[in-house]
Structure formats: structure tokens, C-alpha cells
Amino acid sequence: MRNALSGLRLILPIMIGLVFATQLVAQPAEPSAAGLWQKVEKGKPVGWFLVVDHDGTFEGALAKLFLEPGDPPNPVCSKCTDDRKDAPWLGLSFIRDMKRNGLAYENGNVLDPRDGKIYKAKMTVSADGQTLTMRGYMGISLFGKDEVWTRLPDTSIASLDPAVIAKYLPAQAAAMKQPAAKAPAAAKKTTAPAPGVPAPAR
Length: 202
Fold this sequence. Notes:
Layout: H1 2-26, E1 35-41, E2 44-54, E3 57-65, E4 93-101, E5 104-112, E6 117-125, E7 131-137, E8 144-151, H2 162-168, H3 170-187
Antiparallel strand pairs: 1-2, 1-8, 2-3, 3-4, 4-5, 5-6, 6-7, 7-8
Helix pairs in contact: 2-3
């Protein structure tokens, strides 16, 4: 009887630990702002924005531009006054210092590359992770403007400019280069006999 009780005392903590571990695994993680987002106006895309997580601080970049006829082909932030002065819009870090608090991201700032002005900003991700509301404001959040972006599938990242991927997603850029490096080796394999070597008789 004593052996059975001592065995139970050993097993009970393990069983309780397993139950808690199972509950933790079963809980779905909250969606993150990290990913590729699209802004649409009048039924047409006007920009793609890549949001990345730097150990809990989130940054957003202009990942793809949809220029109108008459727009300069390679716009730069000529009115910026910080380290982004004269930087190309494509790949420009325009969201900085966002700190995550559940589905909300706060205490950040957003740059308007058209006039170089920097506004306070916050973001909110929907519970299903498919929309992101960006709010830029001056002073207090009440005096601001919302933009709602929709999430693009991760596969869309492959269509971005390679320089943007290399800058913000270096691990993914390296992974994308690996198959290309292996391709020449695979191309050398051939079933045709080498020149001057007779084919085997049938």
C-alpha cells in the first residue's frame, strides 16, 4: 500500500504538469501585426506595407508602390529631416518604435513621405488577424485619422523587390537564394551520352 501511495505521489505532479502544458499548447497565439499588408482606395491597391518584429519592437516599410500616371518613377523622401532624408520611398522605414500590447501596438510613430512630417501612431490588429488599423495623430489620438489595411498571403512576399526582402527579411532572402544556387548543379545531370562516347548497344 505504501509503495502504491509513493508511486502516486510521483505520478500526480507529472500528470498535473502535462494537463497545464496541454492547455497552453491548445490556446491559439494572438495574431501579430508582422506580415504584408495592403491599402486599397477606390477599389485599387495604393501600397503594400511590410511590418516586421524586432524582438518586440515593430517596424513598417513601404514594400510596394502603385504609382499613378505622372508620378515620379522613383520617388525619394526629399522633405524628410532625419536619417531618411532623400531615401527612396521603396523600402523606406515609415513606421517605427511600435510596442505590442496584445492586439494593440502603441507609442510608435509614422512618417508621411510626401511632406516629411512624423506623427504619433498606434495600430490594432483584428482578432482574426486579417485587418490592421493604423492611426496617425498629432498630440492626442482623438485628433487623428485611421487607415484600414488587409493582410496579404505570405506567398506575396516573393513578389517584392529583392532589396526590400534582403533589408527587412534577411533570413527569408537567404532561403530564397539557396534553391537558385542548387539549380546549376541539377542542370548538369543529363541522360545523353557525352560527346565521343558511344551509346550502349540495345
